Amino acid sequence: xxxxxxxxxxxxxxxxxxxxxxxxxxxxxxxxxxxxxxxxxxxxxxxxxxxxxxxxxxxxxxxxxxxxxxxxxxxxxxxxxxxxxxxxxxxxxxxxxxxxxxxxxxxxxxxxxxxxxxxxxxxxxxxxxxxxxxxxxxxxxxxxxxxxxxxxxxxxxxxxxxxxxxxxxxxxxxxxxxxxxxxxxxxxxxxxxxxxxxxxxxxxxxxxxxxxxxxxxxxxxxxxxxxxxxxxxxxxxxxxxxxxxxxxxxxxxxxxxxxxxxxxxxxxxxxxxxxxxxxxxxxxxxxxxxxxxxxx
Length: 296
Known about the structure:
By secondary structure, the chain is mainly α. Helices cover about 80% and strands about 0% of the residues.
């Protein structure tokens, strides 16, 4: 990160912090929408909305660069991993295991990001980055344990646990797959391409659920929540995330993921009036300390 001017570095980190807030706030928003909408239909709606949102950003503020012939398979692969396979894997894993298990396993994504970055891009993992990510992951686990959510790693949840772990690895792989594309195309164009591929794929996946959905019986606020989720958590946040990956690299951006549970439990405290225990405050402090260590 030392190769970037401090002003650009701080601007990038502010954008990534905005992503953290948006993604943390998306949990109650998504939960509200999926109380009436199928998870697959919900994902399809928000990705279609996100694709339109990013297209406006692309065609009104930047220019389209023709895709080089050798990059087309890379774009398709990254789009399928980020927009389709990860999203489906996350939903299925969450449905088969406890929320606590899923949250812990998905919090391993920064560690997976380091692994893929070293394997795919041959980048050396600095010792302080490893220490910072492990410290912040410990903080995340403390927050989840303090929340009182049930953690069970038994036979009934085994497949769900493995699928959730696969989702964490897929998100890390997605972060690394974006890197070479971001070196040749602007951030908004990359986001548009990946989100549009996701919108097409998820819409196809959602067809069976959509055919059995009683659309008229669903309150308009559920649709509004899905639209808001698409604009914010997929359209805007993913574009900011791609910018962060471009400026800080996969490892630097990935560690901000560990702040999402910290902000999520703060938001839950004020919006859902959930009880917070001392171990959760300690966990939040440990997580933030880990991010600070990793970014040095």
